[in-house]
Amino acid sequence: MDYQNLLEGLSVEGSIPAGVATMITQDNRRIEPGGVFVCIRGRTSDGHDFARAALEAGAGLIISEHKLGLKREVVAEDTRHAYAFLCQRFFGNPAEKLTLIAVTGTNGKTTVSSILKQVLQALGRPCGLIGSIHSEIGQMTIPAKYTTPEPWDLAALMHRMVVAGCTHVVMEASSQALDQGRLLGLRFALSIFTNLSRDHLDWHGSMDEYYAAKKSLFAQSDAMLTNMDDLYGGHLLEEAAAPQKCSYSFKSDAADFVAHSVELQAGAVRFGFLGEGMLYPLTFPMPGEYSVYNALAAGGAAIMLGLPAGDVVEALGKVKSVPGRCEVLHAGRFTVIRDFAHTGDGLEKLLGALRPFVKGRLVVLYGCAGERDASKRIEMSESAVRYGDVLFLTSDNPRGEPPDKIIREALPPLEQAGKPYNTFIDREDALRRALDTLGDGDVLTLCGKGHEDYQVLAGRTVFLDEKQFVEEWLESCSAEIDGQQAAVLH
Fold this sequence. Notes:
490 residues, alpha/beta, 11-stranded mixed sheet, 24 strands, 23% strand, globular, disordered C terminus
């Protein structure tokens, strides 16, 4: 597409040069000959400082917010908006050819997105998925770099979905992506809010700013579905800008979608899916109270999108679990589960859901991320000791922060609880030792990494797939496991 056509509909100052756009980027290191370089101010760097380097690398057009005195330059009022607009236009505006659904919140985004995608697919709506584990286009999966891709990658994914015949796309909307304007210019048919708890304050600075980033999504939405039982979800019902507002609840019959007569089971939840003029029995094949919320969110969204309620509930009963979300890695004399829970609230919900069904001991292995909001470390440990019988405090992704410092900051609740605990800087050592302690009826929860198959250390990323680790451990000591109880931690 030539530059003149590419910029049609975007207000710019300056003379648009002749030439054909080969790509669009905000990263001068990715520029290709003929590419469009968009200067964007970030928190730590300003793209305007790299415009000359992009031009020297072959950029055919520079878009800035103020004149830089460069050749082949035009000025736009808001380059973040311009970047999102141009990426969509380059790929033929694929977002306009899809029904867009977004899911935002601290916990549950990945699970709700996956469930809703499965329901839509089962009911004849070919659906793409964009999320933190991966993106899905038909049977193809594409690894995810970010929960919500930047505009160029997002537009490219949507284009591929249109070509593949998708009519809908469900995507996770992270607070950082909303704050950085990655979703500017998109219009969502429906956006879902799951919950809000302490997380990402290293980025947002306060819960008010974190909430404001989430709330901004609904100004781009024709309809919203929010968790009435969450404090911030209740605020959204009053404050969000979406024209149509609906809610779901485990606790209040005032919501549009309600879980009635909930029965928690070891591997599922049973309840009546209640809405205006409807009540359907549902056995949802994922355990825990939070699974009730996930099912209500996904099911309510599908109904709001116009699908028959009875068919939606039937499809909910057949969904498959999400990798790394309360995923059972082994079930026998003892059970091993991995989950992405990495906040105090996430651990609270996971461990609280599992606790009633543990016949032996609940063994909790977790760590706290480095170079992230340190204030949640104590909260995570408080949740761990509230439900766990044995605790293993180790590393998550320490990044450049000293792992022993992270562990020390998370340790006080463990020291005060009087329960058995161990600390390991090396997560593999912690995994091995935790597995070695398991006996009859014990449940080991591996918290924090979930689907991830890597660990970010200082200056390097190493392979660590906890599912593979557990499988190899089971294979290496299968005879011992079959013949005698594993060692017990004292």
